[in-house]
# Entry
Amino acid sequence: MFRGIAASQGIAIGRAHIVKKEVEVRGFSVENTEKEIKRLDKAINAAKEEVVIIKENSANTIGQENAEIFEAHLMILEDEEFINAIKNKINDEKINAEYAVKLVVDEFVQIFLNMDNQYFKERASDVRDIGNRIINILSEKSSNSIANVREKCIVVADDLTPSETAQMNKDLVLGMATNLGGKTSHAAIIARTLEIPAVLGLGHITDNVNEGDMLILDGNEGVIIINPSQEEIEKYESIQKKMEEEKNELLKFRDLRIVDKNGKRIEVAANIGGTSEVDIALKYGAEGIGLFRSEFLYMDRDNLPTEDEQFEAYKYVLERMGEKAVIIRTLDIGGDKNLPYLSMEHEQNPFLGLRAVRLCLARKDIFKTQLRALLRASVYGNLRIMFPMISGLEELLEAKKILKEVEDELRAEGIEVGKYEVGIMIEIPSAAIISDILAKEVDFFSIGTNDLIQYTLAVDRMNQNVSYLYNPSHEAILRLIKMVIDNAHREGKWVGMCGEMAADLSMTKTLLEMGLDEYSVTPPMILRVRKELNSIL
Ligand SMILES: C=C(OP(=O)(O)O)C(=O)O
Ligand SMILES: [Mg+2]
# Structure
């Protein structure tokens, strides 16, 4: 049994197909370097044409946004530093084009892998992918053995590039297992989008599996079993069957809308961490985005995202969701979420420290950039801006003041600002207790139980030793939630919940009876919550 990263949910049972992608490249010296450079130019053009076609085709299978990955491939093919490095190798070392490509790609890959940055580490596979494509064209071999899969199999590989994953035939590739790769690698993102179960980062799986071995791949737990017993196969077949039945059964709730006995619509929305999750949210019938954790746009990189980068991301989500509401939470960094490039002082109690809106009020430059991007995007959909970690009225008023300033600045610049709502997370007990006062200043509340529970019960949400005390149904928590809902309703404001408690099916009924207006959960939980609500009402 091997353990790796559970990168895409589901169970696959089938024969291993080992994909070896190392293209063997022979190096030899050449006299006519000009001829090699011409061959190289031709191959690069042909590679570009291939990538454009893959990009267009994959837009239909993996969605426009994920297909943009191939835009990055085109950029590499147009990168002068990369291409000149290959040409210089041909000229200086008088070697054949294939070999020069291999040497330069190896150098670039090494540079990326040595970087102390997950994003660049994961880009190494993009460069390798492009290198193999050029070499295959130069040596007139058909590219990518993965596209040649003819039978149902579980693909086992050292690493899978984005284009290989996107070219996978979902009917034949039952699952994927790789030595390398992380949860945020493009291969993982695409596997999740295509719903191909995947276990990545297994270390040495390719050394331990032989072509044709029987495998069980458990994408829920991140486990691979090689040549399992009949008993194990039966156990996993029954899990697989159950998951399939459950999924099919749940689909009938996709378009169902829940209305309570008073005629009030109860919405089930999605929590997302990035733009690529919007399509999955829609697929599972999200009635809106109840929480977009914008801090993920700031992570896995070396510098702050620019106003334009953020604007593009927010605009994309708003446009994709159409008329449906999109709650974008402003930067919630600090606590356990760090930005290595923001040199923040070491704190004894980071969860009680300079995090979220406190940090934004201290670093107005960062805050204003995000608010500008949000307001510029507001004309593209139904935007709701939400401030995290509000503890008192002053903080809320200060955040709103800055928002107003930004809006005035934009208007003075002649930039259009659309309609939008403003709300706050209720995740600190003090905010819950004065929710009657705060309700007058906002359009909505969203209860963040993940933090509300830890702060109310003094239980670190990440500490195993006290996890037995982390109890969503503690009477103190229930009273706070009820108080928040009542106070908001008294002011005619609505209340959602985006903490994990919203996805706890044992609490669905209690929350409904308290008058909760919206449940926001991870996309795969949407239909389960809706089914539960339907069975109650
Ligand atoms: C939704 C919440 O925010 P996060 O989990 O990102 O802290 C919460 O605290 O409940
Ligand atoms: Mg929180």
